[in-house]
Design goal:
Elements (H helix, E strand, L loop, with lengths): L37 H11 L20 E2 L15 E4 L6 H16 L1 H4 L1 E6 L2 E4 L8 E2 L9 E5 L1 H4 L3
Antiparallel strand pairs: 1-2, 2-6, 3-4, 3-6, 4-5
Length: 161
């Protein structure tokens, strides 16, 4: 099924999960995008598979071109993956080599967030959300993102604008 735009406009993007546009009684299908968005596919093609045009910080020369990546549907129906707006790039925080790649991806996303309208990034012991904590990177104690970098786009980024 091709991607369909299920975002609710007029609500600020931000937060860990877009539960701000989930209303009680909403059918889960109301947030089912049917696949990854054009914006997340563009991000994967231009940042993961190629050298990004904004290359600061510089991409490690040995960064894998085809790491395992999960996009749609995610694990739940109130989730940015289900809306087609997120990607999990599997790089282990506990592996010294992969951690270098994952930390680069995290840092690149924060430094270049406006390029793809990135609203949040989580990896290992750090997280960043555009509208949380003044847009600052903050520590995290959760172990849920030790094996992948989670990148999520806002609604404008999902449609590629």
């Amino acid at each position: 099924m091709p991607w369909k735009d299920v975002c609710v406009r007029g609500v600020p993007a931000g937060g860990k999960v877009r539960e701000d546009d989930i209303k009680s009684g909403d059918a889960p299908s109301a947030h089912d995008a049917g696949g990854p968005s054009p914006g997340i596919l563009n991000f994967i093609a231009k940042v993961i598979a190629q050298d990004p045009s904004q290359n600061t910080p510089a991409k490690p020369a040995d960064f894998p071109q085809t790491p395992h990546i999960d996009t749609y549907p995610g694990r739940g129906n109130a989730d940015v993956h289900f809306e087609g707006r997120a990607a999990d790039v599997f790089l282990s925080f506990n592996d010294p080599k992969e951690s270098v790649w994952g930390n680069w991806l995290f840092d690149w996303c924060v430094a270049n967030c406006q390029t793809f309208s990135i609203q949040g990034v989580i990896y290992g012991n750090r997280q960043w959300f555009s509208e949380a904590h003044g847009g600052q990177v903050t520590p995290r104690n959760d172990t849920g993102h030790m094996d992948h970098v989670h990148i999520e786009l806002n609604c404008d980024g999902a449609v590629g604008s």
